[in-house]
Amino acid sequence: MPKIKLPTKSPHIDMTPMVDLFALLLTFFMLTTTFRPQEAAVIDTPSSVSDKQAPEKNVMTILISKENKIFFNIDNGADTSNHFREKILKRMGEYYKLDFKPQEIIKFGKLASFGLPVQNLQTWIKAAEQKERDLIMEKLKELKKDGIPMDSTDNQLSNWILFARTENPNLQAAIKGDGEADYKVVKKILDILQEKQVNKFNLFTNLEKVNIKTEDIK
Q1: Helix or strand or coil: residue 174?
Q2: What's the count of helices (H) and strands (E) in the chain, helices before strands?
Q3: Order of strands across the sheet that contains 59-64
Q4: Which of 23, 74, 68, 52 is nearest to 185 (CA)?
Q5: pLDDT tens digits for 115-149?
Q6: Which of 4, 13, 65, 205 could form a disulfide with 41 if both were Cys (CB 3.0 to 4.6 A apart)?
Q7: How confident is the model at residue 213, as a pLDDT?
Q8: Domain regions of the chain by residue span
């Protein structure tokens, strides 16, 4: 009696739902992702062997360029609905009697670090794109008016720190200094932080690879 061969069918998986899901996820991430704004200065931090991670939220960062210019940045905290950056700018505007428009305050809340006197901040905020803001910084650099003032007559850095900690008491301080920055400038910043009762801070460094030889292990 001959054997009856049953027709074999190769399994078939309908990938249409997977493609639709992938398209939906891709669209979602494209609409919700926000790119981090470019920093106001390129900082080449010194190397270290510490692998401690700096916090990503509730941080105010003081940046020091190799030209010893001071830049500043604050985030909006873990809950961005608090709009800490906007509140801090309002306080600075009130202190220096500057009329920041509501749309300027909102835009400032979405930007990154800055390094210019508060009196020139409106022009920088109004710039439509990062390239235009960079051009403004270059012009101020030529006029030697870039960097946040921290001299005895107008210590704007001290006021930024004061209002930042007033609006967000959970802020942690971080210093990101170029390896070629003058230590005297760093010391002055440390003095300002201590004046504002900030005695703990993080230092940004590049992680340096360390080779350990067997004879070094005891």
Answers
A1: strand
A2: 7, 6
A3: 70-74, 59-64, 172-177, 201-203
A4: 68
A5: 999 999 999 999 878 888 888 888 888 877 788 99
A6: 65
A7: 44
A8: 47-207
